[in-house]
Description:
Structural class: mainly alpha
Strand content: under 5%
Shape: globular
Number of helices: 8
Order of helices and strands: HHHHHHEEHH
Helix content: 55-70%
Amino acid sequence: MSFGFFIQNAILNGDGKVSNLTSGMRGFGGYIWKNLLIILVVIGIGIGAPVAFGAASLSRNAFLLSCLAVIAMILPLLLALVGTWPIAGIAGSKSGLSAAFSRGKRGLVPTFLRLFAGLILPFIGALILMTAATSLSYAADSIFSDGKLNLIALAILVICQWASTFGLCYVSIVLARKLLSSEAPRPPIGGRQGNAVAATSVSEVFE
Length: 207
């Protein structure tokens, strides 16, 4: 979570990109508790929805899969709607949850798809790798086997960790850019407005 904070802080407080902002840890406390609240809501819905629809009567594996499926849909959807709420404080904005929801409704579908790709695809890829390794009789979850280094498991771990980090970086940039684009003054027709917020070169790569 702190990794995402520093990425978004660099984008929102980049030199020459956003005026009247100072770098540092501004908004870190609010960033943490707001994100934790979003995660708790997602977990509550992810467990409550399957229970409400009778999934608790299924086997344990089926119940866990149904919960994960709901979470996989709710997490990117909720972040797409109110994901700019935790990071508003980084940019010095006092806007609340309702303002974040108004920002989230604009361009909801593209934002949801980007967040889904960044959050869920690395997990699915890791699951496929681990399943393939298990089918080939490799202990994909054990780095050491019989006192020896399991190179297959180590490679899977490195790939999964890299994909997860890349996904988190991508999600952080998408949300920061959404806040920038919504707060930036719109240039008048036929001309450019001098104090418009410019996107960082790093975020343009992930657009």
